[in-house]
Amino acid sequence: MTGVHEVEVVVAHSERATVRVGDVYLKIDPDQGRADVEVEAMALAPVTTPRILWRNPPVLALAALPGRALGRLGEPSSGSPGAWAAAGAAVRTLHDAPLPPWPGRSLDELATRLDRECGWLVTNAVLPTDLVTRNRHIAEAALRPWTPVFTHGDLQADHVFVEGEEVTGILDWSEAARGDALFDLAMLTLGHEEHLGDVLAGYGGDVDLDVVRAWWSWRSLVVIRWLAEHGFDPAAPGCEVDVLRARM
């Protein structure tokens, strides 16, 4: 890394941080359970993931992926329809893989979290009651039995790197687990609804769009408190609050 003159803070909050130094990402996470999941998931996933350079808890060093992020929440995506379709195909490859050995969150856990966060949003007047009520009703459609697949668990568009119309790798596997395939598709297209058709063209098969939209509402409702408490703004243009408003 000769010639590197600065450290880029990719993301930092009280739970963990990621910095970039040249072509190396340093992920700092005191929760070694999350790091263990990330390392094992990357070893099992049948898609390209960052190369592990070394691990010295609480730091995990990863080689940078070529290309750039497919998109970022709150910003228009520069990714072409073909790039989004390639991302959908990569997700299909992951979902068709053997299940990871560890479980994901149960329906009861997901329902309890939705109930708790909606109550907090209303009680503290963070959002209008009708906005929360409408989106909660939509979100409940996601809380149904599903056949578990190998899910990334936090498949935001900025975790998928592309060059042209090729996926060069997928980042941040600490939430990987058995889960609902449609949750991954919803996370990938959260705030990028216009690219849902492109993703599904690459993913293939029949997908229940109402459930994808339900996961958009669920995710946006349950994450607002965490974002606010960790220095992020869910009310920024194009972000979670706007996702909820779009459902009205």
Tell me briefly what this model is.
Helix content is 41%, strand content 17%. The chain has 248 residues and is an alpha+beta fold. The chain has a single domain, classed as Alpha-Beta Complex (Aminoglycoside 3'-phosphotransferase, Chain: A, domain 2), CATH 3.90.1200.10.
Walk me through what this model shows.
The protein has 248 residues and is α+β, with helices and mostly antiparallel strands. It has one domain (65-246): Aminoglycoside phosphotransferase (APH), C-terminal lobe (Aminoglycoside 3'-phosphotransferase, Chain: A, domain 2, Alpha-Beta Complex), CATH 3.90.1200.10. It has eight helices and ten strands. It has helices at 32-44, 81-95, 107-123, 129-139, 181-189, 196-203, 209-229, 240-246; strands spanning 8-12, 17-21, 24-28, 52-56, 59-63, 68-69, 149-151, 160-163, 166-170, 177-179. The strands form three sheets. It has a five-stranded antiparallel sheet, with no helix packed on it. It is globular. The mean pLDDT is 95.
